[in-house]
């Protein structure tokens, strides 16, 4: 065999065995053990992961116990607050009831002297109670009024203009009032009817201020819903009382719970007559008495002394006589309660009106 042939045979076997030799070398290289690496010298944990987890869990347990304790304290505080609030409300209710009790007792006392009302109007603004007055010598009606809102009582001026006049029934119907009475006196001139002397409407003087003369007295309501009245000789004196409305007639019957001397002229001119008087109790409730009579010649109705005594016995503090005779009128619920001496209601320039 020649040298050339030997070389060809060797090349053949090398090429045939090459894949197997490559595979063997690859297995030897990938199966070499990987040398272990030592931890970095910069990282040295102070506790194991298990110990750290246990610490975290322990802190969570402590937080849960603290939360439960806090919630329990809040619940106890809330319960105590609720209990305290309830007690305070009870105390407030009791105090309110106790503070109202003297007023209730006083109202019962004054009402007992009037009897039993035969008609009542009650709203959140006003309470009106109607009673019969019949002492034997005269007869009429009493109207007790409690103003819960000062604006529940107002005054009308005729049909809205000075010099005009209308009946109390018409004034009640026109304005939608629940009740009404005639108010001050008047003077006729040129076929028109004007309010007498000082008259105030909506806080303004109609035809200016006139000092009291011939025993004339002003009576009206102030901005607090309190009855004011008396003789006034200067506008500043009346202004101090802050009148919202008011009219004038004669005379004053009671002041500060005391009787005022009635001028001799008014004791006999006329002696008896239909009358309208207005006054106030200590608690500022109003009392109006309207006495009936069949004429104005002095033979029917009541005397001023009789009404003065009546108001005094009933506990009225301040009382004033309003226009009387054929002017006396009492309208409640759209109905004329008294019997006017003229046979019909007389048109007058001023009326005191009461609203629900």
TrEMBL record:
Q: Does the keyword Membrane apply?
A: yes
InterPro entries for the chain: NAGPA
TM spans (from-to): 12-30
Q: Please tell me whether the keyword Hydrolase is annotated for this protein.
A: yes
The coiled-coil regions, if any, are: none
Listed A to Z, the keywords are: Glycosidase, Hydrolase, Membrane, Transmembrane, Transmembrane helix
Residues making up the signal peptide according to the UniProt record: none
Give the superkingdom in one word. Answer: Bacteria
Phosphodiester glycosidase domain segment(s): 176-354
Offer an example of a GO molecular function term for this protein. Answer: hydrolase activity, acting on glycosyl bonds
Output this protein's name. Answer: Phosphodiester glycosidase family protein
Species name: Paenibacillus terreus
Q: What is the lineage of its organism?
A: Bacteria, Bacillati, Bacillota, Bacilli, Bacillales
